[in-house]
Amino acid sequence: MLPVWVSGAAAGIVSLHLVQRLLFPYFWADLRYLLRVLRYGLRVEAYQRRGRVVTVLDKFVRLAQRQPRKAFFIYEGEVHTYGAVDRRSNRVAQVFLRHGTLRKGDTVALLMGNEPDFIHVWFGLAKLGCVVAFLNFNIRSRSLLHCLSSCEPKILVVGADLVGTLEEILPDLPKDVGVWIMTKDSSLPSVHTLLDKIEAASEDSVPADRRSANNLKSSALYIFTSGTTGLPKAAFISHMQVLKGSAGLWAFGATPEDIIYITLPLYHSAASLLGIGGCIELGATCVLRKKFSASQFWNDCRKYNVTVIQYIGELCRYLCNQPKEGEKNHKVRLAIGNGVRNDVWREFLARFGSVKICEFYGATEGNICFMNHTGKIGSVGRTNFFYKLFFPFDLIKYDFQKDEPVRNKHGWCEKVKKGEAGLLISRVNAKNPFFGYAGNKSHTEKKLLCDVFKKGDLYFNTGDLMVQDQENFLYFWDRIGDTFRWKGENVATTEVSDVMVMLDFIQEANVYGVSVPGKAGMASLILKKNTVLDLEQIYKQVVTYLPSYACPLFLRVQQTMEITGTFKQQKFRLVDEGFDPSAITDPLYFLDRSKQAYVSLTKEIHERILSGQMKL
């Protein structure tokens, strides 16, 4: 017979376990995740205390020495080893060391697509201690000149396939900006060729003190915001932010044996920091693709034995829209990214097998990040007492009419209750700094909130509305610029879009507010192939599943949806164009409440709406 105390202790342990499972079901998952985060933070802190600032580039150079023959990335079937990338980036550094006038800390702008030399040039310039500005290769003329003026580069490096874009801006480019193109010859005046000089350059390493960072808060990159609501802004990216971004794959459980598939543009932080940086943090291999292709996605995954994929925005939906064909025949185990809708999340899991979707939240320039380490559908992450201790944030009430946070009679902001949507703000302090944007200082100042809960406190305004549920899961609700107020109520564009795409003939719905006066809802629609627009069905759908104030007053049917380079819907131009049938050639429709139907939006109806004769 066992002693009584043994059976009593066993019963107590079982009881505690049951209580934990009942009251704190995510305790162990939270603890494991928090310990991983703390472990990484302590490792970085330990380096600094020893007077050593170890950057991601330093880690790459060490890997090139330790595993020179291991594949770093594969591009169009060609393997580029750690050693080979190190040597070619040395050649780039030697070219600019000999031919350029670059000093440590100078900015160099990089206008290149996804190709091996993007990484070679990036690393080569970083070895000289330069700050590299990643330019979005999709933007042209005025927007591109705006980006260049905001980061003030000494040199602009342009890919061979983007010389046409360069020619458009060359006459207006400041004369003190040196221009280099990735070719062996050029007919353009005052433009230097780079490819011929790289091939003739030495592979010798540049002295390490050229790349050494004084501290982790010094600038490493400029990465431009996607510009969904206006011109892109150049976000300062410090060495600390690069390190944090590169830890993302590791934090979700990726290993050195994994093969990561990168189809996102390298000018975006998801591909460059999380993807390339994450690969270096692990010492793993990645497969780099020139451009995302939904039809070739799973073929590539099978061909290269991919185990980790990256997604952003609408990418997962594009995959779900592909014809069904052997889609569970792959080795992918992790999908890491942000911006997947709930319905797409479920469909993705049903169609593509046991892939763990690792959704996270984090702005390029932000100082707060959430990671969904439990896999709960729809959530961007979890929080708890300990997490808020290290990364303090709050959700506060927001006034959509005044377009500013709500303040009480004492002038302080007010927190929302659980289950309510609130503006996500993150405290700015020494451990969680906000570095802001290059160029116009007002852009940086607009992202900061002062005297929020007490005199002198400072918070980063993410511009995102979030909801925290009773289990402390966090959900993205909307952007404050996208949410609009109609008939005294707040309308979340994401909610309206989700309801409309439930219809089997609607491929995509981009919802935004247009001036009438006030802000009324408008939805730009893309129809699925071989389907027809059913206005009666749309009417039934919106009045059944949406409150009356959220039903879109206007519909616009387009052939293609304009998106940013990172697969986010572009709203800025649509908002600007409004609902004028004399200026828009696409079919337009209006929600006529008196007829309980969507009707064709004629010039006569448009004029009656503007004059106030038509009741909305």
Automatic annotation (TrEMBL):
Signal sequence extent: none
Residue ranges of every copy of the AMP-binding enzyme C-terminal domain listed in the record: 496-568
EC number(s) on file: 6.2.1.3
Localization terms from the record: Cell membrane
Any Gene Ontology CC annotation: plasma membrane
Alphabetically ordered keywords of this record: Cell membrane, Fatty acid metabolism, Ligase, Lipid metabolism, Lipid transport, Membrane, Nucleotide-binding, Transmembrane, Transmembrane helix, Transport
One GO process term, biological-process aspect: long-chain fatty acid import into cell
Top-level division of the source organism's lineage: Eukaryota
Bilayer topology: Multi-pass membrane protein
GO terms for MF: long-chain fatty acid transmembrane transporter activity; long-chain fatty acid-CoA ligase activity; nucleotide binding
Catalytic activity, as annotated: tetracosanoate + ATP + CoA = tetracosanoyl-CoA + AMP + diphosphate; a very long-chain fatty acid + ATP + CoA = a very long-chain fatty acyl-CoA + AMP + diphosphate; a long-chain fatty acid + ATP + CoA = a long-chain fatty acyl-CoA + AMP + diphosphate
Family: Belongs to the ATP-dependent AMP-binding enzyme family.
PANTHER family: LONG-CHAIN FATTY ACID TRANSPORT PROTEIN (PTHR43107), LONG-CHAIN FATTY ACID TRANSPORT PROTEIN 6 (PTHR43107:SF10)
Protein name stated in the entry: long-chain-fatty-acid--CoA ligase
Taxonomic source organism: Nothoprocta perdicaria (Chilean tinamou)
Taxonomy of the source species: Eukaryota, Metazoa, Chordata, Craniata, Vertebrata
Gene: LOC112953521
